[in-house]
Amino acid sequence: MKTIRSIAPLRQFVRSARRQGQSVAFVPTMGALHAGHRACVEIARRSADVVVISIFVNPTQFGPGEDFTAYPRPAEADLRACREWGCDVAFVPTPEAMYPAPQDVWVEAKRLSRPMCGRTRKGHFRGVATVVAKLFHAVEPDVAVFGQKDAQQALIIRETVQQLNMPVEILLAATARERDGLAMSSRNAYLSASDRRRAAAIFAALGAGRARVAAGELDPGRVCDAVKQTLRRAGIRRIEYVELRRADDLRSLRRVGGRMLLAVAVRIGPTRLIDNLVFRRAPDGLVHDELLF
Ligand code: PAF
């Protein structure tokens, strides 16, 4: 595996692979790699000849007072994982390579960035869409793989690619989970032992909402109430949002139905965690879990 730290040699490597008829898959990450990233790399491996992974903690997607400085950066362990998982290139750019000048040009999916995480993390998705656009221009991949845990991010990237005519296919990996259901996240490392036990309630709470849908509930508010009740019972009181929305475009729902995204953001101690389920209630009443896209 090659480790490349600036854009020019990366382009040279990728273009030379292309001249030899090889296709390129890309997995963008901020490092602190876990099984969720591994699932993305596996999809990338199956989708193209060459796999490029990037590791870059992107400053523009963190707001003031957020965890940019504290974000885990286990550089050695990350590169070892990339090698073991069969990546061909780890692109680990310096901040200067990604932001050679103060950023004045931004990519923003306005409507999709408004609800859910966008409400409390102002400017977050603008930072994400902008750095992903920069990374796509550097890597020039045929496909790129994102995780479903960051469902709003995935929809924003798909929309950005469509509206800016970027020739990249966006693929999704299902959320990787710990044995008790907690979604894998680099931020789980912040949890104390007692907070970690409490965090398992997030997946249980999503399940309670899903069960309400399976029982025939038609009011989205009541589905969200079932989720909040389960969270509160587990001692999770700082609930940022619980929302049931249309999975395809995040539009709000008047009535339970169609393909739905049930999404949660909470704070446990100092740690902000998000998770979601995507499902559809079939005419026979059964609820089927699905990938976001
Ligand atoms: O999901 C992430 O890890 C980041 O938001 C991404 C897509 C790598 C952009 O910095």
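^ pantoate complex. The mean pLDDT is 98. The beta strands are 2-4, 24-29, 50-55, 89-91, 143-147, 169-173, 238-246, 259-268, 271-281, 287-289.
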